[in-house]
Each structure stands twice: as C-alpha cells, then as structure tokens.
Amino acid sequence: MAISRKNSAVKGPAGGVKERLLDAAEELFAERGFDGTSIRDLAAAAECNIASVNYYFGGKEKLYVEIWRRHLLLLRDTRIASINEVMTNSGGKPHLEDLLRSFARAFIGPLVDESGSRLIKLMAREMIDPRLPAGMFGRDVIKPTLSAMQQALSKACPDLPESKVPLVVFSLVGQLVHTIRVKSMLQSTDDQAFAIFEPARVIDHIVAFSAAGIRAFAGGEIE
C-alpha cells in the first residue's frame, strides 16, 4: 500500500474514512506491530488527517480493538452458521462427518485468503505482545462457538459422554488451528512433497480421524 505523507483533510463520507482507517491499520499492525505503527502512519495510509484516528476511534488502542472485533464477530458468526445449517438440514439429527466437515470448512475458510493471512500475523503478534482486553476472545468467539458445537455434537453422537464433549471440540479446533499455521508456513513453497498438506485434503483427514476418535470415546474404547 502506498503511504502518502500529506495530512490532508478527511475525504469522503465518515463511513469511508472509518473503513480506510480500519483497512490501513490492519495491514500496518500486521506488518509492523502495534508499537511499530504510529498514528501518523495510520492517517497517511488511510489518506485522512491525524485527528481522524481519535475522532472515529478514540485513539490507536481502540482502533486496534475494533480491527479485532470485526474479525472475531465474522469468525464466530461464520462458524455458528455452519453448525446451524447442518442442524437445520438434518432435522436436528446430523451425521457426525457432515457436522465435522461443515465446521472445519467454516473454521479454515476465512483464514486462508489474503485477509486471513493478515489476521494470522496479527494473532502471532497478539500472542507475543497482548493488547486486547482480557477475556475478549474467549467471551466473543470461543464461548458461543463452543456452546453451539457442543450441542450439535451431542446430537450427532448421543452416546458421547457429556463430560468429554468440550475436550473433543478442543481437540478438533487444535487440529484446525495447526492446519492454518502449516498453510501459512508452506504458502511460498512449490515443493510437491507438501501438496498433501493442502487444506482440503487435511480437512478430509481431520474429519475421518476425529469421527473415528469420537466414536471410540462414545463406545468406551478410550477412557
């Protein structure tokens, strides 16, 4: 993104300025980090005046939170919608593989495009240098998604003990997060030896592997 050094007057409607600031801030925070990005940098990249950051967001810190909020809400809603769709189409009695596959695709899909690549960078920086309010990620994403998936999983595999459901979901999510990370690490290589780790193939494996493990848990084969 070309960065103009001129602090011009706000251009266009307020919505345009806010969106430009959000888009510019997301890219700059991902590439440079929070401390490495100044308000002047943000304003220049968004082609607005410096005061716009405070006017629309109340400062750099709140702008950072708002970037995360729009991503987190999308991730949450996409994942829950995938669960609800399977539940609706199955009349409340989903096949286990259908549920796992729909959730896996919804989980990975938004994180493997260009915008998702930036979010992964932001996640890595947030893990090293936390800036989000305590509990935001858990409250806004993990808790509602976990609740929806637990209810659906209990319907898909009714013999699975309720006490085991949360950790089953945790295991599934762990596999999906690792898939995204591997995708990010290998995206610049053309080595055909890594073709097996393409998300679509990995999802098929995760679904088969997880379904077998869940049924083993439900059947008492694994304690």
Explain the overall architecture.
The chain has 223 residues and is mainly alpha-helical. Helices cover 70% and strands 0% of the residues. The chain is built from 9 helices and no strands. It has helices spanning 14-32, 39-46, 51-57, 60-89, 96-108, 114-128, 136-156, 165-186, 199-218. α1 crosses α6 (114-128) and α5 (96-108) packs across α8. The longest helix has 30 residues, at 60-89. The protein starts with 13 loop residues before the first helix and ends in a 5-residue tail after the last helix. Mean pLDDT is 86; it is low at 1-12.
Provide the β-strand percentage band.
under 5%
**Structural class designation:** mainly alpha
Task: Give the C-alpha Rg.
Answer: 21 Å
Q: In DSSP terms, counting alpha (H) and pi (I) runs of 4 or more, how many helices?
A: 9
| Biggest β-sheet description | none
- Overall, the morphology is elongated
The counted number of beta strands is 0
Question: Which H/E pattern describes the elements?
Answer: HHHHHHHHH
Low-confidence stretches: 1-12
Measured distance between first and last alpha carbons: 53 Å
Residue-averaged pLDDT: 86
Quaternary state reads single chain
User: Into which percent range does the helicity of residues fall?
Assistant: 55-70%
